């Protein structure tokens, strides 16, 4: 195992410090915790948004803390849910008097720990709602989940719910729009190479020189099928057809797409994949209104990518396009 | 070789299309070329900035096309200089009547082809100046260069010269500030794993399970020394001491630092490395005013990182902090 670190035991804590050092205009650390929150908090009376989960998915979730997205990100150890007391710290710092929405990816440990934290926060008088993202169409259950896994589609939930919260909507309204995104967002990924969890020291699976793993999650867990490497065109087709059938999509639907690198895939290849999504959407008469291409929800240094589609109505399109200002996503810039 | 592509022969052209599809608010392609230029051109009378080089370093250079940075990026094939006619297309589209500055990384092919393009543009009556970035302290000459190589420090040149050009400075002034950055910016990198050029199909070098290569460039070329893997702390010390002695730096110097991932290194590890830079700068009484952490100048899917230091005076600090709005770098956001 080769990693730039001092020790597997200190890597997450040191990286959180490093994120604050790198993005001081956005992030500060709640002292004594693994919670990163906004350097400039939201005004009173706005709904707060908290997300988090295991580390190893950077820029998720600290990269989305800032104006128009999250108020706090809670980091567990690599691929391990944060504990309820850490999530509780995140809820406390994100509460500005109008309640807090928890955006949780569907993994058993995360769902349980965020639920316990919610109960603890409610006992303190904080109003809390939870939404659970389950966008991965690859598997119905996995070694880490009951039901579908939450993967890159989570970032569209952060963006859209965060935009509505910034506008002063109520907790019920922000929860409702998050659930509308969750009802419609779908993703699927594949790996060219596995990743190695620092604490384990060994790759999570092995692939032959001409093999890929379809339907992988974001924790190095197995996919649904091992296949021969195929062209970018065939890979995109395969993922998009599976997603489109699941929704289902129809001609005329307007789409947002995320082309997400799993950690070790060059932007050169992700951009070539984005082109395939564009060709596919044109051939299916589904206008592609928004394309996000880059690393949004990674799995350490796994090589591969996931595609996420979200059909847009006017409300979702407007919220997706609303200004945001975070380490990873910045839009609606007004320059001098 | 595992890559998300249709063919090595079409990868770059398809990726350029994919970048425009992903960032239409920033980028458009000059028809029939490998030149990406601003979607909204600079006002007349401003100096234009052009950079470029071989592909495989994404987000360099198209990721820096936009307000406050470049006017055009010219892409060659992977790790291969763009031809003079392509660079000429970039100069033409970047000329808004006040001349064009070419920012060239010091590689023999790039320097030659950008020089020929400059002569062709001058024959058309366009005023052109060239600066050559040579920030890599690892080697004095290499298989690709006479003199030091240009690596990640190039992005500080884009940022600072681009900010001054946006303010309406003359070509001579923009050239002078670029040369001031070049005189002071220093970088050095290391690899944990090599990369594979699509056209070659084989890794550019091989490393044992416990080995790293110090002083690598950005084209998979050999470094200066093969070493045993060390801690993040020791790696940062080693690079920073070499850079600091080269400049030389002294206590009280204010610094900008870039912690640059080579392609396959997780942000988790880069953030941990950023923390080491911060500790080092504190222990040497050199305030770290700016830290950029992420992937700025990659080498395909190479694992590893480079560190770049730039001592700041008031002028450079102000220009580095000036607003910019590009696919990769956005700052000075005024949100609603």
TrEMBL record, chains A, B:
One of its GO terms (molecular function) is kinase activity. Pfam families: Dak1 (PF02733). Residues 7-329 form the DhaK domain. Keywords: Kinase, Transferase. Gene3D superfamilies: Dihydroxyacetone kinase, domain 1, Dihydroxyacetone kinase, domain 2. The keyword Kinase applies. InterPro entries: DhaK_1, DhaK_dom, Dihydroxyacetone_Kinase. This is Dihydroxyacetone kinase subunit DhaK. It comes from Sulfobacillus thermotolerans. The lineage of its organism: Bacteria, Bacillati, Bacillota, Clostridia, Eubacteriales.
């Amino acid at each position: 195992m080769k990693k730039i670190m001092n020790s597997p035991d200190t890597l997450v804590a040191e990286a959180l410090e490093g994120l604050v050092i790198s993005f001081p205009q956005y992030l500060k650390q709640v002292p004594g915790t693994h919670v990163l929150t906004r350097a400039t908090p939201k005004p009173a009376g706005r709904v707060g948004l908290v997300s988090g989960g295991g580390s190893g998915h950077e820029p998720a979730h600290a990269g989305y803390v800032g104006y128009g997205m999250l108020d706090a990100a809670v980091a567990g150890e690599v691929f391990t849910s944060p504990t309820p007391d850490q999530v509780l710290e995140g809820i406390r710092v994100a509460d500005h008097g109008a309640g807090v929405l928890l955006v949780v990816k569907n993994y058993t440990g995360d769902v349980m720990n965020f639920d316990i934290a919610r109960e603890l926060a409610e006992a303190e008088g904080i109003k809390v709602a939870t939404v659970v993202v389950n966008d991965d169409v690859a598997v119905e259950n996995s070694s880490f989940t009951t039901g579908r896994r939450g993967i890159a589609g989570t970032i569209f939930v952060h963006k859209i719910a965060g935009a509505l919260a910034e506008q002063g909507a109520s907790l019920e309204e922000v929860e409702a729009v998050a659930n509308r995104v969750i009802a419609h967002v779908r993703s699927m990924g594949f790996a060219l190479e596995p990743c190695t969890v620092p604490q384990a020291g060994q790759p999570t699976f092995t692939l032959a020189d001409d093999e890929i793993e379809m339907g992988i999650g974001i924790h190095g867990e197995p996919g649904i099928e091992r296949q021969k490497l195929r062209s970018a065109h065939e890979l995109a087709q395969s993922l998009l057809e599976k997603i489109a059938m699941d929704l289902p999509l129809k001609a005329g639907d307007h789409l947002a797409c995320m082309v997400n690198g799993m950690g070790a895939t060059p932007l050169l290849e992700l951009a070539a994949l984005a082109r395939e999504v564009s060709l596919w959407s044109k051939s299916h008469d589904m206008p592609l209104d928004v394309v996000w291409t880059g690393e949004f929800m990674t799995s350490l240094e796994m090589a591969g990518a996931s595609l996420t589609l979200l059909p847009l109505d006017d409300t979702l399109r407007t919220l997706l396009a609303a200004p945001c200002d975070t380490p990873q996503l910045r839009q609606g810039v007004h320059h001098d």
